[in-house]
DNA sequence: TCGAAACATGAATACTGATTCATGTTTCAT
DNA sequence: ATGAAACATGAATCAGTATTCATGTTTCGA
């Protein structure tokens, strides 16, 4: 879609209609939460406003007090997922100075998060088609943090040399694929097993 | 004799309404090709039957001579992508007995394919939401081939030990992420650069 | 306490777009 | 050469659902 007046440092996307009262705050939260469940379960297009408001226990028109369109509630969910998952991983890796250890801890935290929030995970994936801008923002913010971490680690000799951008995408691809195993394919293997194998691959490669 | 439901090991999904004449064959091909372009460009939901038939140069009703529903044409495109991409990679790796070399060649072939067929690539990704069964079939067929190759290579000592399933998903995740860079994020880096970095990671890992 | 702003309702609107169908036209085996 | 099957047409149908709106109800600061 169009991005008029695209300020570079614009992180916030027009958070209008902020509720003014506690009651409104609660209602908006209820709608967002219902939307997460309904859209996560049925997908964006099969989820109707009626289902969402009914699940939230409010009238259909109430939806439009807090969201301008159906797409807007979706975007907010993608934003929320971005904040939550970055926060989660940051928490899990903050204290770890060794990059490879941080890699392992971050991957574990990510997989635990998606296991706990499968609806949010699916929504982010679907954003690729429903709201490409939100998807790009989510993904780019992630990649940027990853890249700078890898650059630093390579400078400090903690890891070998190699293009940090490509490496960041590859590592994110691994995390995504394992997350998909859990959420989409219903893989029941313990997360530690997945992480152990993946970490060995990331650290040592396939060579004998 | 020509029993359409004949073969025992047929996991294929009812390829009914096969055209009976050359004319019909050509029309169906035109619709499929138009659908690939229109759905690839606008996404499944924003693509209308009218756009597809108009692009194909036939009347709207003609669509339903060859496809029972809108979803059916989508499924056929996913199937086609699966066939094409497996064939492409198989061709590129057939003659290579060393697994690591095959990995490199296969990744290159895959990325070249998605660069040449961005519409098909997007359609497969969207299948996750539009036709989960088709998506699962596509992905599983891929993973199975991957896994058996890794199992063999580990047995022969060409690569180190490690759970082949998890490794297969991780490697597919890398390939997908790089494909997405090219198709979705418009990354213009030469494929060989991407492959060089990714291959080094796959072969040697991040350890210094 | 009061009234203006915020919030809530749900029926009515408005529009899109998939699918059908009655009616022609073309193909091809005989 | 011929007629039955296959193919083609595009206007009409039909259902779903996002969004609006006129009308209440609740909140909360002054």
Q: Could you give the topology of this structure?
A:
Two copies of one chain form a homodimer.
Chain A: H1 22-42, H2 49-56, H3 63-66, H4 70-93, H5 99-116, H6 118-130, H7 132-155, H8 164-183, H9 191-204
Helix pairs in contact in A: 1-2, 1-4, 1-6, 4-5, 4-6, 4-7, 5-6, 5-8, 5-9, 6-7, 7-8
Chain A binds a DNA duplex (30 and 30 nucleotides) through α1 and α3.
Description:
2 copies of one chain form a homodimer. The first copy, chain A, is mainly α and 208 residues long. Chain A has 9 helices and no strands. In chain A, helix 6 packs across helix 7. Chains A and B meet through helix 5, helix 6, helix 8 and helix 9 of A and helix 5, helix 6, helix 8 and helix 9 of B. The structure holds a DNA duplex (30 and 30 nucleotides).
Q: TL;DR?
A:
The structure is a homodimer of 208-residue chains. The first copy, chain A, has helices spanning 22-42, 49-56, 63-66, 70-93, 99-116, 118-130, 132-155, 164-183, 191-204. The first copy, chain A, is mainly α.
């Amino acid at each position: 879609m169009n991005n008029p007046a695209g300020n570079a440092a614009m992180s916030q996307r027009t958070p209008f209609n902020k509720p003014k009262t506690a009651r409104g705050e609660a209602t908006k939260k209820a709608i967002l939460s219902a939307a997460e469940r309904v859209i996560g379960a049925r997908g964006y297009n099969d989820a109707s406003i009626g289902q969402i408001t009914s699940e939230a226990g409010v009238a259909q028109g109430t939806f439009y007090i807090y969201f301008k369109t159906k797409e807007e509630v979706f975007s907010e969910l993608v934003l929320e997922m971005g904040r939550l998952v970055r926060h989660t991983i940051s928490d899990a890796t903050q204290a770890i100075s060794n990059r490879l250890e941080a890699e392992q801890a971050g991957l574990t935290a990510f997989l635990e998060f998606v296991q706990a929030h499968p609806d949010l995970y699916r929504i982010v994936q679907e954003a690729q088609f429903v709201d490409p801008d939100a998807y790009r923002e989510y993904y780019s913010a992630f990649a940027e943090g990853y890249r700078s971490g890898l650059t630093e680690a390579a400078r400090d000799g903690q890891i070998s040399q190699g293009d940090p951008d490509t490496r960041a995408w590859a590592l994110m691809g691994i995390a995504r694929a394992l997350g998909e195993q859990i959420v989409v394919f219903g893989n029941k293997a313990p997360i530690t097993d997945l992480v152990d194998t993946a970490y060995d691959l990331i650290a040592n490669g396939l060579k004998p």
